[in-house]
Amino acid sequence: MILYNNRLIDREEARVDIEDRGYQFGDGVYEVVSVYGGKIFRLQEHLDRFEYSANQIGITLPVSLENLSENLHKLIAHHELSDGQIYYQVTRGYAPRNHPFPENPQPVLTGYVTRKPRPVEAMKNGVAAIITDDIRWLRCDIKSLNLLGSVLAKQKAAEAGAYEAIQHRDGVVTEGSASNLFMVKDGKLHTHPLGNLILGGITRIVVLEIAKKLGIDVVESSFTLSELAEAEELFLTSTTSEIMPIVTLDGKPVRSGAPGSVTKLLQEEFEGLL
Ligand code: PSZ
User: Fold this and answer.
1) What range defines the domain where residue 201 resides?
2) Where are the beta strands (DSSP E) in the chain?
3) Is residue 80 domain-shared with residue 106, that is, in the same domain?
4) Which of 83, 136, 146, 180 for a ligand 1 pocket mutation test, highest count of atoms within 8 Å of Cβ?
5) Could you tell me the CATH number of the domain that includes residue 243?
6) For position 155, what pLDDT does the model report?
7) Which of 3, 116, 183, 257 has CA atoms 20 to 30 A from the CA of 131?
8) Ligand 1 closest atom vs CA 175
9) Do 25 and 110 belong together in one domain?
10) Number of domains in the chain
11) Closest-lying ligand 1 atom to the alpha carbon of residue 143
12) Contact 8, 2 (CB under 8 A)
């Protein structure tokens, strides 16, 4: 079963019009939530961000957040999902192809369950990252269905045998193709400030909360590629990658080439929240 607006239907019954604006223009927004032990991690934050993204592009959600939440839980129950993810999205709906918004848009909301295992080995050993230009648009705070910039960055990483692509604008580091980036320097955490150049990650919020609890100083200011090269530790954060140590950058080891102590401490605390 999948979620279609306000009800669960068979996947085979769901139909998307070829003129759906999500399909033709990437005109929509989405979320990915993690499920641990049958519970959705930080659901309220994901719902709020979903509404924010939709609002920013003038889409009125076809259901209330309460109804959406109820149906996400019905999906979990129906699929007996203990550990996995739910992807959900809303598009502006279908209309004869034309760039301006249609007169009476009927947004289409869909959602379904996935079962990607937690990347436990990668979280333990760390992963490789490459550096690439940030070629995305200037509203990265919207979790838009338009993912070409991210797709191309991630493909570049994949071709280099790396897990993630770290993006920069004119030498200023922004975030990963599908993750936020943190650097440890002089024992402090550094990460790009919120704004139009990055997505306000939910995992980023959680890491900032943990840092506060542990008394680790956080600097929410952008940093450059040369500062990145001097990092004591690097890690990325996302709903599915959680807190992921980066141990090589463009093939060169980050310090010892093993996950750092601050990163491991944060991972341990994160685990305690699940
Ligand atoms: O399964 C996957 O590959 C996922 S699940 C979430 C993401 C990828 N990416 C979220 C994301 C992003 O796309 C960008 C550009 N920046 C930051 C993030 C992290 O956001 P949260 O922590 O909310 O998942």
Assistant:
1) 120-271
2) 2-4, 7-9, 28-36, 39-40, 84-91, 108-114, 127-133, 164-169, 172-176, 180-185, 188-191, 218-219, 233-238, 242-249, 252-253
3) yes
4) 180
5) 3.20.10.10
6) 98
7) 116
8) 16
9) yes
10) 2
11) 13
12) yes
Determine how β-strand 84-91 pairs with β-strand 108-114: antiparallel
Question: How high is the pLDDT of residue 11?
Answer: 97
Which structure tokens are listed for 99?
A: 């760039």
In the residue annotation, 116 being an active-site residue is answered as: no
Query: 143, 154, 188, 213: which is the annotated catalytic residue?
Result: 143
Same domain, 57 and 147: no
The 3-state DSSP class for residue 204 equals helix
Report how far ligand 1's centroid is from the alpha carbon of 214 (Å): 24
CATH number for the domain that contains residue 75: 3.30.470.10
**Pair 260, 240 in one domain:** yes
* Residues contacting ligand 1 via CB (< 6 Å): 32, 175, 178-180, 199, 201-204, 237-240
Instruction: Give the residue ranges of the chain where pLDDT is below 70.
Output: none
Cα pseudo-dihedral 45, 75, 178, 203, rounded to 10? 30
Do residues 45 and 165 share a domain? Answer: no
Q: What are the tens digits of pLDDT across the range 65-112?
A: 999 999 999 999 999 999 999 999 999 999 999 999 999 999 999 999
**What is the rounded distance in angstroms from the CA atom of residue 249 to the CA atom of residue 245?**
11
Ligand 1 centre and the CA of 98: distance in Å?
30
Pocket test for ligand 1, best of 239, 241, 243 (most atoms within 8 A of CB): 239
Are 109 and 201 in a shared domain? no
Q: What is the pLDDT of residue 88?
A: 99
